[in-house]
Amino acid sequence: MASTDPIGFIVQQVPNAFRDRERLRRWLHRVAQDHGSRIDAVTFVLMDEKSLLHYNHTFLHHDEHTDVITFPVDSNNGVAGDVLMSYDRIKENADNFNVPVQHELRRVMVHGLLHLLGHKDKSKADRSAMRQREDTYLAHFPTPDKEKAATRK
Question: Which candidate in 19, 33, 43, 55 could, as Cys together with 8 as Cys, close a disulfide (CB 3.0–4.6 Å)?
Fold first, then answer.
C-alpha cells in the first residue's frame, strides 16, 4: 500500500538506508512545524556519488563532490522540493566522524530540509548556525526508547 504522506523516499542503485520511514516522517514534520511551516511535498533521493556529482555539475555548475543538494519547488501549501543525497559520501562521513550511517543520513536529511525551509550555509556563521540546528534536531530524533518514555508520562 502506497503512503499518502507528503514525504517520499527514493533509492537509486545504492543500499536502501531509509530505516523506519514512519519515524523519519514524524521527525521531519516536526522540524517543519518548528519553523512555522508544513511539508507539502518533499522527496529524499539516495543515490551514488557519481550521480549526485552529475546533478551538481549539470544544474549548479559545481564540479565538486557533495553529500546533499536541494531543489526547492514553489508551493503555496508549505515546503516542497527534492533532497538529493550521496550514499557514498554519507557512509564516508559516518566513518570519518565515527558515527553510525543512520545518524549521518539523518543529519544530511535534516540539512536538506533546513535548506528548503530557507536556511543558508554559505558563510562561516551560517554554517555554524546550520550545524547547531542539525545537532538540535538530531538530539530530538524519536528513538524507540524516547517514544516509549514519552508514552509513560
Answer: 43
Output phi, psi for 47, to 5 deg: -145, 175
pTM given for the model = 0.91
DSSP 77-140: SSEEEEEEEEHHHHHHHHHHHT--HHHHHHHHHHHHHHHHTT---SSHHHHHHHHHHHHHHHHT
pLDDT in tens, 106-153: 999 999 999 999 999 999 999 999 999 999 999 999 876 555 444 445
Q: Give the span between the Cα atoms of 135 and 125, in whole angstroms.
A: 15
Locate the domains of the chain by residue range: 7-146
Half-sphere exposure of 46 (CA within 13 A, CB side): 23
| CATH assignment of 7-146, among 3.40.390.30, 3.30.450.20, 3.10.310.10, 1.10.3720.10 | 3.40.390.30
Q: What share of residues in the chain are helix, strand, coil (percent, to 5)?
A: 50, 20, 30
